[in-house]
Every structure is written in structure tokens, then in C-alpha cells.
Here is the input.
Amino acid sequence: MAVLETIHALKDSFLDTATVIALTVFFTLLCLCIIIGHLLEEHRWANESITALLLGLIAGVVVLLVTQFESSQILVFNEDLFFLYLLPPIIFNAGFQVKKKQFFKNFTTILLFGIVGTVISFCLISLGAFLLFRRFGFTTLTIQDYLAIGAILSATDSVCTLQVLSQDDTPFLYSVVFGEGVVNDATSIVIFNAVQSLDVKDVSGLTALNLLGTFLYLFSTSTLLGIAAGLMSAYIIKTLYLGRHSTDREVALMMLMAYLSYMLAELLDLSGILTVFFCGIVMSHYTWHNVTESSRITTKHAFATMSFIAETFIFLYVGMDAMDIDKWKASNASPGTSVGVSSMLFALVLIGRAAFIFPIANISNCFRKRENTKIEFRQQFIMWWAGLMRGAVTIALSYNQFADATTSSTQDNALMITSTIIVVLFSTVVFGSITKPLIEAVLLRHAKPNHNISDATDIPSLEDLRLLFIETGEPSEEGNGQSSRKRTGLRFLTSSTVHHLWRKFDDKFMRPVFGGRGFVPFVPSSPSGAIDGAPNRPFDGAPSHAFDGAIEEEQTS
Here is the structure.
């Protein structure tokens, strides 16, 4: 009997009832989000992100009613949970599925918006918050707090827009919005960490240069670490042929090495977001082609599923945390004050976003000689709109700065957190719900059907270089099909020079060592059987083009 009592006591200590209840509630809500998201798939105004956020809010209200407005905290918002467990699978899957050719073709534009634009937004929001808040009597906030506010509100969340845009229908817009979102998150976190370590009492002219040097160091080293982790996984799987004995091992190794890259980056005080993103790109280029056919299908769906669950969980998390009554009581602010502060912050977000989207886009257009490659105003508008939503990164950074701060009053700190939550909720629900009909009205209705290859952006492979000059093609709008094909071929030669050189280097030096497209290991138990095809077979038994991001898009002739 004594032994049984000891076992029951251990069980009670291992399993906390509150945690079990919380997880049960969250898993139930996740199931509801999936079901409701499916039912609202064709709905004009709703998407899964908004559904999850609203379900979280409703669940928070229910908990408040059950506890008689004592507390609605089922799970406390935890930065470690967000940054270490929920964010990595989302960023990795983004890199794993991205269309690499389109992404790197627009890489300069992405860096301009993601780095330079974020810095501009950070400066304007910090300055605006300093001037406005001082005018309205917020005297306890420090310079470091205002700089942190600029970094916090510079972190965008373009999920709602990306759920509407298509990589196939609007490839340029999708790749820029998507790429800017990833680089923006990394840049905002780097700036935020730099602000944390900044000594505001000893600021000199070299401070800006030091910050720039720190950022360039973090960006380059984080990227190299992600590339190294991806190449290492490719080399190990190619060399050891893990699929000979168990496909589970190669799938597990891919997952663990991807997560290991993120953890190493955080351990070395680098940017885990950039590291795991580029690790995903390299794994999709090399490692994914080295595994067996069944493992390719498994990893494709596994990574996408983990990302989807983590993303939905985050929006639920944010929605439920917004109803934490303790934060609202601690701020001791009237509804008018909360709305006023939130409105000021969101106005700064609007101005900060517009201050770099339109100027950078127009400056970029000055260097684009062809009219069909310029960024049109309606595209600029969608890019501006896509960056207005704020998400979990914003809330996590806000908690980091103001939850335990001792330099300013508790009321002001709580007010900053609650105001940030209001900005996130308003931007996601209101602007997110308008995104789909807005894009349809502004962009998709003006889209012209593309019956012929009009630009290098639309050329799926280098193999098309040969087809470009031998096929008859369709006549151009001016009726001169021959001259149109000639101009198209010349444009293709110019824009694909770097890509062509990279492919030659990749085929000659990288693929023989790290594998990739064309590598089919000898695995008798796999669905494909043994190696019996030519080495130029692009991807043995690969899934359909629905997963173009993870499959190398270009094939050599």
C-alpha cells in the first residue's frame, strides 16, 4: 500500500492539473480552428489566422465568466515557448517551401525593404513615440523604452496577405512580401537586442557605426551557419544512405538538424530566424533530394503541418492572452486613454510603413529600365498594406521590454503592453479581414492573362533557353511575334547570367559532394527500387508541382 501511495504522489507531482486543462482547451480550440477554417475556405472576409484569434478571444471571455472575472490566464504568454518552440517550425517551413529562383531574383529588393525599410520605420516610430508621449504626460518612459517601442512596432506579420497571394499568379509580389517578412522579423529582433545592450548615457557618433557593424556581422554569420547546417545534413544523408535501413532516421535527422541550427544560433547570440530560414532553403535544394521517395512525401507534409499547427497555436495564444484581466487592471487606464495611446501607435505604424515602401519602390523603379519590371503603384499599395498587420513577435518583444522593467512605472509598462495588444488585435482582425477583397479589387482584377513568356521571371528553367528560340510562340500585342521572341530571348540572357553561373558552379562542385537533384540512393526497400535510372533524372518519384518550393524549379537541358 505504501508503494501505491508513493506512485500516486509521484503522479500528482508530475502532472499538474492546471497544465492538463490548459492543453486540453488549446487542443480543442486547434481542432475547431481547422474545422472552421475549412468551412470558411471560400469566404471573402475570413481566414484561419483571424478565426484562431477570434476563437482565442472568445475562449478568454468564457474563462473570465467562469472565474467571475478573477483571471483568464490558462497559459501565461511565455517568450521561451514562442521563440524556442513555435517560431522555428514556421520559419523553417517558409525557407523549405520558398521558390528559390524567384526569391533570389528579387533578393536585392527584399533586402532593401526588409533591412533599410525596417530601420527607417524604427527611427520614425521611436521619434514619433518620444514626441507624442512626452506631450501627453508619459514622463517615466526612458529613451531606451522609446527605442524599444520603435523596434517592437517595426516587426510585421504578413500572414493574412500571404494567405491570399499566390506564388503562381503574383510571383514577384509574393516573393517580395514573403521575403521582406522574414528579413523584417530578423532585423527587428536584432535592433531590439541592440537597444537592450545600448548604453544611452554614452552615445557618440560611433554608436550608429557599431550598430551597423553588429547587424552586418549577425546577418552574415547567421546566414552562413544556416547554410553550413543544411549542407552538413545533405552530406551526412548522401554519404550514409540512412534510408537503406529506416526512412524514419533520415526524416528525424532532417528535423533535428534544422532545429539544431536554430538552437546553435541562439546559443551563439546570432539570429535564429535567419539561420533556420537559410537552413530550410539549403535543405530543400540538396538534402530533400537525397532522401528516399517516401521520405520526401513525409517531410513535405510533416514540415507544412508543424508550421500550420504552430501558426494557429500562436494566434490562439495571442487571442486568449489579450483577455488577461490582470494586465488591464495593472495599467489603471481609462478606455479612452488605452484607445488614444493605441491609436497613436498605430498611426506611427502607418506612417513608418509608408515612409519607406513608396520611396524605395520608386527609387528601385529608376533602375528598372523595362516598363514591365517596374513596381506598379497598386503593387506598392499591397506591399504597404501587407506590412500593417502586427503579430506574436510584436507581443513577445513587448513583454520582454515592459513586463519586468524597473526603470519606469508599473502602470506605464502595463499600458504599453495592453496598447500593443490592441494594435495587434485591431490590425489583424480589421485589416486582415479586408485583405482578401482588397487584393481582389486592387490587384487580381487587373491581372492580365499571360499566354506567352514575357519576362525571365516567368521562365521556369534554363532548359527554356533552347525552347525560347526554336518554338513558334504566340504573336505579341503589336503583332510582331518574331521581334517579340527576340527581345524576350535577349532579356532572358541578361537576367539569367548570375543564375546560369551559379548553376554551372552548383553542378560542377556542389552537387557531387552534397547531392541534390538527380541523386537517387540505392534503397531496395524504397518505392522507387534500386538506382536504375540516369543521373540526370531530376527527382525520382517526387511529388507533384504543388510543392514547387521544396523541389528545385530549374532543370538543365
In short: The chain has 21 helices and no strands.
